[in-house]
Write a structure and sequence with these properties.
single chain; mainly alpha; Arc Repressor Mutant, subunit A; Tetracycline Repressor, domain 2; 10 helices; about 0% strand
């Protein structure tokens, strides 16, 4: 078995070559990310490489390396951007008048705003799979889970779930597992199936939270 520091040496750098500051560089960087999203959806993670990305962008592989050192760095940038959008949603939820919402209103709104963010990210299922399976991206997967659990445990307290922080975090982790996996399914379903799946998700969340809200009374 490899020692931890030996394993770390095999990881590719995920830092961009430099932060784009000129308008042209910013546009090229975004183009690379957009094209990679499209390719992730069409060719899949295993067949994706810098040669294919460069060809679709219309530049040489050498030019691509001026922006990102490898495929993992491009995927990391995509994952970080998606995490930033999730963080924005979590902050917006904190700004709601949570104490005034009924449980059904809260669940409807929290599902709608999160699902919108998942639908905005192209190839989100493949990207999330990459965050879980690619060692260089695993930090993003862990950061996502920690962020959602931490913020939603605070939200649950404000809607009336008066339990110890550890218990709220446990419930928040269960909430995360319910919602995250369901959103990834829904974005790939047709409209009718998606609506039924969302209704089932809301039913599960209602049962979970209503049970613990009653126990808090």
């Amino acid at each position: 078995m490899a020692k931890p520091n030996e394993t770390m040496k095999t990881l590719q750098s995920v830092s961009p070559r430099s932060e784009p500051v000129q308008s042209r560089s910013i546009k090229r960087t975004q183009q690379i990310l957009d094209v990679t999203s499209e390719l992730l959806e069409t060719v899949g993670l295993n067949d994706l490489n810098t040669a294919i990305i460069a060809k679709e962008v219309g530049i040489s592989v050498g030019s691509l390396y001026h922006y990102f050192p490898n495929k993992q760095a491009i995927l990391y940038a995509m994952g970080k951007t998606w995490l930033d959008s999730i963080e924005v949603v979590l902050k917006e939820i904190q700004e709601w008048d949570l104490e005034a919402l009924s449980l059904s209103e809260f669940i409807d709104q929290v599902v709608d705003i999160n699902l919108h963010t998942y639908r905005q990210q192209r190839a989100v299922l493949r990207l999330v799979q990459a965050m879980f399976s690619v060692p260089e991206l695993r930090e993003l997967d862990e950061r996502h889970d920690d962020m959602v659990i931490s913020q939603m445990s605070k939200v649950f307290k404000r809607i009336g779930l008066k339990k110890h922080i550890r218990e709220r975090e446990r419930i928040a982790r269960l909430y995360l597992e319910f919602t995250h996996s369901t959103y990834l399914v829904v974005v790939n379903q047709n409209e009718r199936r998606a609506l039924r799946t969302l209704e089932d998700l809301k039913l599960m969340l209602t049962s979970l939270l209503a049970h613990h809200l009653q126990a808090s009374d």
